[in-house]
Structure formats: structure tokens, C-alpha cells
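User: quick one, fold this
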Amino acid sequence: MDDMFLMTDPFYESLPRVSAFNALTDPGAYTPLPSDWSLGLSDVVASTEAIAAGRYKTVNMVGAAIISAMMNALGGRPFPFVFGGDGASFAVPSADADAARTALAAVQSWAAAEFDLTLRTALVPVTDVREAGHDVRIARFQASEAADYAMFQGGGLSWAEEQMKSGAYALPAAPPGTTPDLTGLSCRWSHMKAVNGKILSLVVVPQAEADPTAYRAALTRVIDRAARLDRGGHPAPVSGPGSDWPPPGATLEAHATRRGASLGRARRKVLVETFIAWLLIRTGLKLGGFDARRYARIVGANADFRKMDDGLKMTLDCDAATQQALEAELSEAAAQGILRYGISVQDEAMMTCIVPSFLQDDHVHFIDGASGGYTQAAALMKGLKDIV
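Assistant:
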């Protein structure tokens, strides 16, 4: 075993992988975070306005940048994280707290300089979460043979996000000109059009006084309903997402990877790399050990289109009948005081990727709706308590 792994906290690596998504409604699938860990959090300020201005792909890229920066800061060691559309959250042991502060501060500075977006960041000790009456419990969901994602439960992540948005635990941005290491961060794939009807981005959280058993039962019904969709509603085709050239995210990727170089030079590099990949996918040719069509299939299989982070988030390729059934189920549960929910409906899904190596299969890919997605769904959910 590598000496790096021997020197680090074994907690996350030792967790069992859960292969059935519906099993994640069971509290027994989760393990409490050790008390000396901390939660890292980020959130794009005024993301709703940025989305209205057509900048959702940029917002997604900034959200995913936090995860990319941490992956590189930790040298590829596994750690729990979750992507939320306009931000991301993660957990680290005390030994990695300084690396987390540095990465969060650097991405903050980079987001302002490259995109004129304000990014809130915070680092919250788990001990503070528990003193406030909440918990942070973690599970690992095996999305595919090669990729797994952390799931969060216990209410602590939501409490920490509220604290961050109120200004508590805030981290200052790094000095102007600081650039995070975002190696591997990309958004090269085309949007994925709905095949069955519409792309639904769904956010579900418990109401404050909800009975936990009733809430879990409602989540199970929603998850089981979605599971009846073709491939569980997965928005990416079995063959992987489509690839056009030039890719729509070329300039965004250039912003992420230029690290002091001119934007034009970085964009030309992205265009050359993506042209080669596009050509290999179109022709089926292989280059060295790289099989582009196989890679595209793994991209789809690895993609994170459903998650638990103190609630349920799913982005589904959904037919009209299932959409109606999901909305009826959720509306009834909301009226009973069990949950709150928001649904964003769009024609396409989008993907943001972190690919440490094209020759390994453990790359991760975040799916969201292409016209507001989780951020828009959460904004709609905020007003639900006024009508149920």
C-alpha cells in the first residue's frame, strides 16, 4: 500500500459501498463522521440571477471547481463530497483542514477573477454541528463498477450551509492572482436532450417537524417510481453523452486550466485536445491506450444523476406520466407536512466532469438540468411552505 494512504485517516476508505440506491433511505446505511473532521462548503452568491442571464454552465463549473481543487490538493486520495449545482460540499479530517482552507480560498479568488462571480466558502467543525443538535453521517454509493459517490444524512450539512449563508465560519478569498489547481476539470460534452419527454431536476427535503419514518417512506416511493423509468431515468445514453466540435464549454475549460497563461492559448489547447477526442469518437479509432468510445460509455455509467445530501436530488429523463405521478406523490406528502420539494423542468441535461486521467476509469461526472437544474428547483422549493 502507498505510504500516503498509511499516513491518512482511514475512515472514508473503509466504508462499505452501497449498490442499491433505494437502500440509502435507511439510516443504517450511514456511518457518523469522526468528531475531528470538518465540513467544507461553497455556494455561488446570486446564482439565480446568473442562471437567468444564461450562465448556468458557468455556475456549474464554479461549483465543481471546489471538488476538483480538493482532489488535486489531496493528491487523488478519496474523500466524501457532493455537488449541488451552484456549489459543493465535502468533508475532511483535521490533517487536511489547512489544505481545504487553501483550496476554498483559491477557488474563491479564481471565480471572482475569471467569471466575476462571488463564491461563499466556509469550513465548519463537525463538533460544532453536533453541539447544535445535528449530525453528519456518510455512506458510499457505488454508481458504477469504477465510480462511487458520498451520500450525506443527519441534517448537519444543511445546518452548516445555513450558517455559511448567514456569514458564520466564512473564509476569506486568497489574494488576487491566486489560482487553484483545477487539473482534470472539464465540460466538453454536449447537452443531453430528453428522450422520454422532459429532464426533471428534483430536490426533496424533510419538513422541520416531519416524522422520520413517514419521510423515509415517502422518499422510497419517489425513488421506486423513478426506478421504473428506462435505466432509472438516467439522462446519459448507454453509449455516453454526445460530443460536438467545437465543444460549447471550451472557453470555460480554458478559464479553469490556464493558470496564468493567456485565455486564447489555453482555449486553443482545449480545442486541439477536443478535436482529437471528437475524431476518435466519430471514427472509432484508438490512440495509444485510449479508446474514445469506451471512455464515453464509462462517462455515462459513472455519472452522478441522483444523490442524498440531507435530502434527495435527482435529474431524470422522464416521461409525462411518470412526471405527473411524481408530482402527485410529492404534493400529497408536502400537504401532509412530511416534505418540501422543488422541480425544475427543462429539455436538456448537462454534464461537468473531473477526469484525473483519461486512461483510468474512476473519473467522475456531475449531471444537472441545463436550464436551472437543482438551483432553480431549490429556489422553487423555498416558496412551497407558503402554499402547503
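User: anything notable?
Assistant: The chain has 13 helices and 18 strands.
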